[in-house]
Amino acid sequence: MSARRLPILAIQAAFGTSKTVIGALIAARTFSDFSERVIATTSTNTAVAQFTDTLLRLDDYNHLDILRYVSDAALIEGAPQTPIHLHTILKQLPENYADALSPESLETCLKYKRGRELLERFMFYHDLAVELSKAERDEYRLAERDISDLTKKTITIMFQVWPPAVVCITTSALLNSIAADGIFRGWFDSFTTLIGDEASQIPEPALVALATHLPHVRHIYIGDTRQLEPHARCPRSSNPAR
């Protein structure tokens, strides 16, 4: 299925038929066979974590660079964690790619790493000894929109030295992140395929918005229409997404 160049592909299968494994295989083979980058999305962070874990367990494709995006707000609320979160990858840039970075880029990554580690001590471990002003917290935070110039620069460096083969992200975060002030604005222009897992749970307005904002990619949706229906329908009288 990854070899078929259909612009839209829908895969309907019953519960327990390894739909997520199929989706992960399509994502992996799309990059491995065609060097084309993939966005994998679904409606909840739990489902994104499951897709990511499935992709990471594919032994034949463990060489692929996989990125999962989770906002700080979602992490604080207890979103399942995986070892390839964006904040982890960004912190590893100075160590893993020191030889490939210019002195200026290396300094940018080091500055972000130091500030991000302090912010995480404050956010996740409640280290009250860490004193960060609101401006400093905003400098290092990860959000879908309105990120700091330092965070933008560090993400630009990441895409230059470590362009991910697959990005795993919730549907709502995806739509926000490609908006005018989004964290991934412009970076998904080179991606060719969108895979929507558990597609029956993706609200119909979101499906329309995905098609509107990502018209250049192949859309592959995997799910079971009898498993879970969308929690928001799109009436025929609705205005088109803009």
DSSP strand tally: 6
Kindly report the spatial arrangement of strands forming the biggest sheet: 1-6-5-2-4-3
CATH class of the largest domain: Alpha Beta
Distance between the termini: 31 Å
Q: Which sheet architecture does the biggest sheet show?
A: 6 strands, parallel
The pLDDT mean sits at 90
CATH homologous superfamily title of the largest domain? P-loop containing nucleotide triphosphate hydrolases
Which structural class should the secondary elements be placed in? alpha/beta
Number of separate structural domains: 2
Percent helix, as a range, is: 40-55%
The rounded Rg comes to 18 Å
Task: Report the CATH topology name of the largest domain.
Answer: Rossmann fold
Number of helices: 9
CATH architecture assignment name of the largest domain: 3-Layer(aba) Sandwich
Shape: globular
| Percentage of β-strand residues | 5-15%
| Uncertain stretches of 5 or more adjacent residues | none
Order of helices and strands: EHEHEHHHHHEHEHE
Keywords: ATP-binding, Helicase, Hydrolase, Nucleotide-binding
Protein name: AAA_11 domain-containing protein
InterPro entries: Coronavir_polyprotein_1ab, P-loop_NTPase
GO molecular function: 5'-3' DNA helicase activity; ATP binding; hydrolase activity
Please tell me about this protein's structure:
InterPro entries: Coronavir_polyprotein_1ab, P-loop_NTPase. It comes from Haemonchus placei (Barber's pole worm). Keywords: ATP-binding, Helicase, Hydrolase, Nucleotide-binding. By secondary structure, the protein is α/β, with parallel strands linked by helices. It folds into two domains: 1-24 and 34-53 and 165-226, P-loop containing nucleotide triphosphate hydrolases (Rossmann fold, 3-Layer(aba) Sandwich), CATH 3.40.50.300; 86-162, no CATH class. It is 43% helix and 13% strand. It contains nine helices and six strands, in the order βαβαβαααααβαβαβ. The protein has helices spanning 19-34, 45-56, 72-76, 86-96, 103-124, 134-140, 149-161, 171-177, 204-213; strands at residues 8-12, 37-42, 66-68, 166-170, 191-196, 218-223. It has a six-stranded parallel sheet. Helix 5 packs across helix 7. It is globular.
